Prior knowledge:
The chain has helices spanning 80-85, 93-105, 132-142, 144-147, 231-239; strands at residues 30-39, 44-54, 57-68, 116-123, 130-131, 155-161, 164-172, 175-177, 192-194, 198-204, 210-218. It has 252 residues and is of the alpha+beta class.
Amino acid sequence: MGLPSCLHYPMSSNIHLEAIGRIVSPAIPSTRMGVGNVKTSTSRRQRVFAIATSGDTDRVIEVKSERPMSEFKLKGEVDEATMLARSNFPIGPEELIFKTRQFLAANQGCSNPELLADTFQFVAPVVGPLDKASYVEALTNFKLHEAFPDLDPGFHHFRVDPYDPSRVWFTSTARGTNTGYLAGVVPPSGKYVEAPPQALSCTFNEFGLVTKYTAGYVMDKEMGNTGGLGGVFGLVYAVNPGLLPFAEAQPW
């Protein structure tokens, strides 16, 4: 058969299932081990196979069937569902994620500051903490959507922090072309910007208002063309590396 030692058998595989046994016989002279993923009618399980060789004949044998992959727990891995279920925070995860999306849709709160608590703070790796008024003014003045009319922030992976049930984490992988003036004064460069993935979060009070917004925390500085920088600094660097000459706005 000439089968490889590491096997993947989807349901559409042409491997004959009757060739898969349950036990490896000690009488079989040579056995090569492999791991494959098989999708069953009830769950996706990891299954271990052996290719048993006897003479000129190879035969695939299942030697072990483990629990469904979804049931596997790493030592030290927390039970997020149980932790969130024990939370006393009055707003549940689904509603918090909805409120986070509302905040983002309102130009990250700038077009509707009523979404921000009076005690609101913006915190980035270098910038901040900024209070509510300073944050709205700073972000509005950059005029990012004028500088990058096709800007796609690439928001994804929204989830509530099991250690802080008032906080929603999510990821951004922004893309856009600089075809407009940045901050109303920097001429367009025509450059296409690819930002690295960045971790962001919104923290809420019991009234559903954002008390803290964190952004710009790069997850992999080798990705994209922003010099490993996140947030506005990354966009500016990709457009014009010399525009912000201070050390904090330079590649790490």
